[in-house]
Amino acid sequence: MALVRDYMHRGVITCHLDTPVKEIAKIMDANNIRSVVVTDDRGEVWGIVSLISILKAWGKDLEKLTAEDILQPYTVTISPESPIEEAVKLLQKKRIEHLVIVHPGVVRRAVGILTTFDIIQHMAGMPAGTYRASMQLG
Hints:
By secondary structure, the chain is α+β, with helices and mostly antiparallel strands. The protein has helices at 21-31, 51-55, 67-70, 84-94, 116-124, 130-137, and strands at residues 14-16, 35-39, 45-50, 72-73, 98-102, 110-115.
């Protein structure tokens, strides 16, 4: 049986609650990603800032807005040991595109991220990394 850990990205890129939104946008651009996990000083997950979160801040001062101002609170948790089908059902039910995979310990530390595109890659039989390569071809 396939598990979440088999599909998730390890090495989650994070920011702190007080990180300016403009800096988060730069982090996303530099790392070619669509979301950044927001953590507190202990590394506990508080939420996620996605491209849509930043887009909703259109017309506001991105230097003054912080991750805490625009984050989507993280209320959905899943373990890396969960079946991948459980993750797909969560993505569908919650209508979200990113699942932060948390360590099952007391402090919810991010150990990975799973996106809808990761699932689509698997469904299409595409090897990991194909999306980034195809984006660079055009």
